[in-house]
Amino acid sequence: MLGLHGTSPPSPSIHDIANFARSSSTAAILSYCYIGYRLRIRTAGFFSSCAVLLGILRSCDAVISGSFALHMVLPANSCAWTPSDIDIYVPLRQMCYLSMKLECEGYNIIHERRVEASPYNMTAIRSILTFSNGTHHIDVIVSRTSTAISPLFQFHSTAVMNFISTDSIFCTYPNLTFHRRALINSLPVYNGSIGFKTMAALQKYASRGFNFGTCEDIHHMPYTCRSIPRTLTDGGCLWLQITDLRHDVVRTTEVFKCLGVINVMWLLGGYVCGAYPAFLDGYSFVFENEMDRLSDRHFIGSEEV
């Protein structure tokens, strides 16, 4: 079904793969092989093997996001573009170790930028480091919180709120993403802080076939309203566990095993549906591994890197 041995490249989305994998044990094995194939193709040139990259992600509590993750989520044949670099997100406590691991693979830091938070820009990004091996580039985005994924909920749009960990592929808004639809992070537009990089990123994804609409346009799709809080375990996310493709229920145990936190809750924010010009600030909360502790509040509004 996946056409692993055919002459034409297969083109299932991650959602298609998940459904196919649950049909039988053989289908699960084929799906596992196909995902591994796509990862190997995308990581060629960056690392000596895909296993090296996945090992780095595991040892550093890191994830991959950006165009690379989106390319893995979408059907291969539907993408006329290929990611030119890899964006790795890592918690602050693992930044030095990740840098050392990349240097061992032949990479050197060629640029570093500190991202300053302010009352008008409560960014979850602490710094951005660009590594190069002479032919390929890797951007390392350092999170201010205890989990690597906090910056994901501050991206320019829902189109790039996806990530890949050592053993999972995650899509925050599958109902939108698989239909090439997206909601824009409207806080920078609202407060006038939208920058050139954000505009360029939005234009880039529009050229890749994404349609940016209003909340009212997509209310018929569940888990998409920007005025309703979301969590990783609310049932609206697609979390494909590569090592157990027949299991599709996201539980707190999986979140903790993958990310080291209990859960993440966020609100996309923006103009409140049917109540224009009422505007709601976005936010994200990280539930740490401490009893009933709620910490690390960050307002949505940073630019994609």
From TrEMBL:
UniProt protein name: Uncharacterized protein
